[in-house]
Structure formats: C-alpha cells, structure tokens
Write a structure and sequence with these properties.
Elements (H helix, E strand, L loop, with lengths): L1 H10 L8 H9 L5 H18 L4 H11 L5 H9 L10
Length: about 90
C-alpha cells in the first residue's frame, strides 16, 4: 500500500489538489509548468519541516540536499515569497 502511495506521488505531485486523471491530461497536453510544481513541492516540504520544529536554516539545507542545483537564497525566496500569478502572453 505504501509503495502505491509513493508511485502516486511520483506520477502526480499535485495529488492533494487534482486527480491523477486530470494531471495526466494536463501533462500530456503540455499544460503543466514544471517549475511551479517544483516550487509548490518545496513550499509543501518546507511547511512540513517547520511544523516538526526544524529551524528555518536547517529546513532549507535539507531541501538543498533534494535540490542541489538550487542555491540557499533561491530556496529561501521560494518558501518565503508567495507564488506569482502566471499571466498568459498573447
């Protein structure tokens, strides 16, 4: 059962927001912004770590282990700044 949940998380990182079916449709049509999904997951993991009383700097360091290509300040900006609305450019 735990393996099934892990597989579900890997295929649909937004499972708490949208169904797997909708995610697959959006992804197949190129409508998923991977950077925004990554930032959402970082914010979610940061909140979990902070709820476990992990210090802010330590939480960011833990996230850097998962995302080594991101700088400390980049993760800090992601977790402390609200997501910007993406506007469609026509």
């Amino acid at each position: 059962m735990e393996l099934l949940q892990l597989k579900k998380e890997l295929t649909n990182p937004l499972s708490d927001l949208i169904s797997d079916e909708i995610y697959e449709i959006l992804e197949s049509r190129g409508l998923i912004n991977e950077r925004s999904v990554r930032d959402y997951r970082i914010r979610k993991k940061f909140k979990i770590l902070r709820s476990q009383k992990v210090r802010t700097g330590d939480a960011i360091d833990a996230l850097r282990e998962e995302y080594p290509y991101l700088q400390f300040d980049t993760i800090r900006k992601i977790v402390h700044n609200p997501p910007k609305n993406i506007s469609a450019s026509n």
